[in-house]
Structures are given as C-alpha cells and as structure tokens.
User: What shape does this take?
Amino acid sequence: MSSPFSTHTLDNGLTLVFETIPRIRSAALGFFAQTGSRDEAPDLLGISHFLEHMCFKGTPRRDWRQLSLDVDDLGAMWNAYTWWEGTAYFHWVQSDRATDSIEILSDMMRSNLPSDEFDMEKKVILEEIAMYHDQPDALIIDDLIQEAFGTHPLGQSVLGTEDTVKSITRDLMAEYHQRRYGPNNLTFVITGAFDRDEIIRAVDAHCGGWQVSDNGREQSIPTFHTANRVVQRDGVAREHIALALPAPPSSDDHAATADLLSVYLGASTNSQLYWSIIQEGLADEASAEYINFSDAGLFYVYLSVDPQNVSQVLDIVRREMADLKNGIDSDALQRAKTKQATGIICSGENGLSRFSQIVGSLSTDTPLKTLEEEYAEIDAVTPERIADYLEQYPLDADPALVALGPMEKLN
Amino acid sequence: MLEPQIYTLDNGIRAVVEPMPGAQSLVVSFRFTFGAKDDPNDRLGITRIAEDVLFKGTPRHDARAIFDTFDGLGIRRSSSTSVEHTSFLAQVLPDKFKSALELYAELFRSASFPSDQVEIAKTITLEELKRMEDNPIQQAMYMTYKAGLGSPMGRIPLGEPDTVSAITPAGVRRHWDAHCRPAHLLIGVAGGLDAERVIETVGDVFGGWTGESADREEVHPISVADRSVHREKPSEQAHICALSCGVPRGHDLYYAGQLAIAILSGGGSSRLFTEVREKRGLAYSVSAFYQAYRGGGLMAVYAGTTADRAQETLDVCQSELARLRRDVTAEELIRAKTVLKGRLFTIGDLPEGRAGGIIEDLFLEGRVRTIDEIAAGIDAVTLDQIPQYIETFPPRPGTLLVLGPRPLENKEIM
Assistant: This one.
C-alpha cells in the first residue's frame, strides 16, 4: 500500500503535509505554528495563547464579526489550541469547502491584532484563567511541568498568570507575531478527502507571499528536577496530586515503551493502579500517562484522593512503580497492546484526530507514522525492552510532585 | 446511503444497524430503557451502582477475568447511567463483533453483583460525589437539573450520599433483575459490517434470552419549575445556569428549535458568543444547548464569569433570549442551517457519531433518521417558525441557578 502521507514545500519555506483517509467525505485542515509557552519571555507568559485568541479578532481583510460569519458559512467545526511547544488552528469541513477554508485560515494567520479588540480579549483570557483556577485537576499538570523543568523555558505556564497577561501590550504581541509566524515556522496540515493539486494552488495563492521569520528555537536540553510542592487551598474537596519522573523525548526509540508502560501501569481500567487503588475504593482517580516533548519527556501520574487516604495511596503508587522492575506480566502486556490497536484503527478514521496526531509529530520532531507503523512500534515492546527502559528511566527514583487541596503537607 | 433497518427479536429486543461500507471499526451501543428515574427514593444511585458492578462478576468469571476478556478482544468500552436510560458503548473491530456481543450478553443475563464489589462501588461513588465539588461547572449543572426538574427527572444519577450508603448488595441484585429484561434493551450498531451479518449475530447471541417484560415503561413528562436559586460557593467565577422547556423530538417545531438554539449558540457568529464574549469580554465559556428526553425537551444556558461581572453577564444572556422572538434574519437562519449540517457531515459521519445517533433515535422515537433525512428536516425550517418556536417553548418561566459567591437578580428583560 502506498503511503497516505506526502509533503510539498513552497518557495518561502511553508511546508504542506497531506494525509488521505479512505471513505470519509470531509477534510480537517489548518496551521501548526511552532511556537508556544517555551518560546516566551518570562515576563510575557501567556503571549502565545493570547495571540491564538487574537487571530480570531481581525485580519487585513476582515473584522472579527466578518471572520466569524465567514467561518460559520463554511459549516466548519473549528477551534485552536496552544501548548508548551506549539499553537494549532483547524477547520473540519466538507471536502468541497476546503479551499474556502484555506483562504480564511491563511487570513487569520496574518491577523492585524486590532488594538480596540486587544483589551477586550484580555478580559476573556483573564476569565479563562479564573475558570481553570476553580478546577484544580485542569491546571495541576501546568504546575507540575513548571516544577519538573525548573527555570528552563519548557517549564513555563501556557496560560500565564493574571500579572503576565496584564503586562502584555499590543506592540509586544505584534513583534512576537512577526517573529514567530513566518512561513518557515508554520506548517499547513490537511487530512481526509481532498484534491492535492487544488490544495497546493490555494495555499500558494494565499501564503506564497509571506515573508520568512525566525524559526525553530535554540534552547539547552531541559533537565529534570525533583520537587515536592504542596499548595493548601480552601474550598477544594479532594487532594489533587500530580507527580512525574523523567522519560525520553518523543523521537526516542523508547517512546513507544513509555507509552505502553503508562497503559500497563495506569490505564483507567484493568491496570496495576486500577486494581490496587481504585478497586480498593481508595481514590476516585489514579492514572498514568506518557507526556512527550521534542527534547524531553515525563512519565506522569495523577491522583484525586480523599485527604485521609493520601499517605496510603502514595505508598501504593511508589510500590507499584518500583515493582515494575521485578517483571511484567506478558499476558497483561499483550492485552494492553490489543486495546491500543483498536484505538489506533478508530482514530485513523477520524480526520480531526489524525490532524492532531500529525501536529503532535511535527511539534516533537518525530517522523510521521502510518497506522501500521504506529502499531508495529507498540507491538515491538517486550518485557525485555521494558526492563531495558527501566534501567535508563527508573520509576522508583524521586519524583517531581505537586499537590493541591485541603492538606498543608502530605505526610 | 444505506437505510438503517430496525429489527425486533421475538423476545422484544430492538436492534438497528447502519452499515458504513469501508469503515474499519464498529461501534455497538446497548441502551436499556431504565435509569436513575427508576431508582427507589431511598436508594438513589442504585442503577448507577448496578451499571458499574455489572462488570465485576458472573457465575463463570470474576472481575479480573471479565476485564481481561474485554482487553483481550481489544474492546474500548464505556458505560453510563442517565435519568431515562442505562447505556453501554463498545468500539470493536468487526472480526471480534460476535465475541463482544457474547460477553455483554453474559453480563446482562447473569451478572452476580458480588457483595464486596457492591461495597467498593459505593465507596467510589461517594468519592465521586465529593470530587464533583472540584468541578463547579458540572456541580452547577446538576444542581440546576435538581432544582428545575425535581424528582425523578432532575435526579443526579450518582445518587446522594445518604441514599448511596443505604444501598445493599441484595438490593442491587433485585433492582437489576426487576428491570433488566430483553424487552427493555435497544442495540445500535454502526460501522464496517453488513446488516445481515449483524442481525444474524444479534439473533444468535441474544435470541435465547427470555424473560417476562417488567412493568410498562413509564414516561415522565418534563416540566421546569419557575424559580431562582443561589448556592453559595467561594469560587472565583459565578456559574450561571438557566433551564426551560424545549421542544420534544418528533414535534413539528423540532428542527426550528434546534435552529433557534444554534442561532443563540451554534457557531462563532452566534448571538450569545457575540454579545457576551466577543463584544463585552464577559466570559470565556457561554453556551446554550438542547437536551432530549422521552418525556420532552430542555433548553439550557450556561455562562461562567468572575463574580463582579456576573450580573451584567446574566442580563445580557436574558436579553438575548428575549430578543430571539423578535428579530432573527433570513441570513442568520441560513447560517445556522449550514452550521448544523456541517456537524452532521463531519463528526456525525463517523461510526461513533452514527451509533450514537441511531440509538438516540430509536430510544426517543422508535424510528431512525438517516443523515439525509436530518439534513432535509433542517433545510425545511422557515423563518416564521423561529418566533413560533419561542412562543411555544419560551425561555421563561424557567429555573435560574447561580453557584458562586453572591446571588444575582433575575430581571424580567423583554
């Protein structure tokens, strides 16, 4: 079978990535900007996310009102998101609207950041920060990453704080926008059903004249820091605990091992933590996840626990993590693989989840993988490889830990 | 497009299949026509507990063996209890379809609800009820349903701390046995398998299940109390929820109602988003949505905003609801149609989207609409039907609930 992927690069450096998906009649498309919270000045945290919002607020061709009318006239499902290493904007449309969608999304990438909308949107961002403040489980991962990477820019908060967001000015944002949104730092991605030549013509027509900017980033490799930060907050019912240990970056050969190991240890059902914690009625959530970046990774565990069970639950988590090096149940490992395989096939039919996958690969400098390649990597994980992995990335070391809830200290 | 076909087995199970040629996966949705509304008053939460413990043992298999079988078949499953129904969803590859059905049939027919597992499920439910306090949006919505719809339709499926504590293993077994009958089961299948094969397999696996139908399914009409409630919480944001009667499925104004709500909250140019967020920067999250029940429909509005700006946010939402009966334009209606049809042909065209759609149709109306029929229904709505909908299903009287530091004034804005 020929590869579903192909790429094309315009003269100004803008790369286009294509993935065809059989059967469906729609296309998910948009831009990935390789700029996120790790690319921000420490006193302007939140500027990437704020810029993402401003791209909806006006362009050389449209005011915000016209922009939202035109997007709705496409019948698009749309959104945008910002994280540590990137910003992405997408439309999911019926295939015959793809070129109209390209015109609008390209226009948005050239937002003129209208100054009368700037202060208005700042209020929306401050509301978003307040909303997350009231949901301790939503932001704890941001706090944990700050602790785990210390003063390295990768540790910087995605939303920023009330203070840093307030200090962002339109001029500072315009400078950042110009510096980070050049064609050589953006990628156009389309998945689903489309006419490749027609797409290239449309993207070239709307983006071919863009001027190059900085691209990529030059930063030292982040180093992992252990931490133990307990934040007491009144009005929170559960103790929310996030902890992490070092893991490989996304492009590492061991990435699939870390991923599968997190399923084995902490999938929402039938995992080690499920049987030893949830099934014992000790917590309402105990989950593990592999979080990857371009040059770092974390093996992440999240717990939501009644304060009176915290020390018992933490003991169990430590024990389960340490226990992995005493051997893996190969039947359970095989089941974890089978479960992942269904997930890969289902997401392969969904244009938007393929779009997000591709953006994830681009942001972490990982080669694009077909569904078969994705599964082959998981299938190659054996108990021996896991033993190897744990030699390099032991899970019984001291973690970075953040807790938020009623407790003053955990022990 | 292939028409979804409904089949009724001799034992009363109704199954509907939508083959999607070329799809690699299959989504199976099981829906029982009982839910939290059928919980005894002093045992609220019992259906939810039964749904959870169903997976924890049969005479032939213990919990670990059941979980291992699910994973070994590569089934991605979820389950949920809502007020009117109890549902089980499985994503599976077509060659494992029959084994998946057999597994669910074993659970539905012979779950043993081990006593220790019921006790664990009670503990976890109590934990989940406490966890809800840390998710004020969800907490506010549940409080609003309870305040607006009363009992039984406004129940929280998780139950209440004292009624959950009172649940016994024997009670769970009795409750499940009394309700879990083939005549109360609907099965929806969408994805890469042909209809004949699906129906034959459903017949093979479930055909031998007999059991007297329990009581006639009782439909409770939806009615929304006219009241204003403040629940104090020292949160940064005030969470504002408004609830009113919406159009039932099958009503002449059903699609007009969907479009009215889309005009309020369908896309980026919709009225609430424009007036509350874009023009005034009052909230990050503001939306209106529709919910269907056998006993009627609901329209809900939600906005979350810092306490100082909450009154203005509420006033703007109220005035948008009032304005809807006056000045919807032809252009706005066409746009709302485009937005709704856009969803239908993107996310609605995946196996999980179609499995959800056909089971909901079968449950609410006893028939199934194709994507094309839904699109035609949307297209047929005329401009005069929007004010007609608002007159027939007005946003007032209704329930207003505010969860946050201070009460708000519920003004009558025309």
User: Anything to note?
Assistant: The longest strand of chain B covers residues 296-306. The two ends of chain B are 46 Å apart (CA to CA).
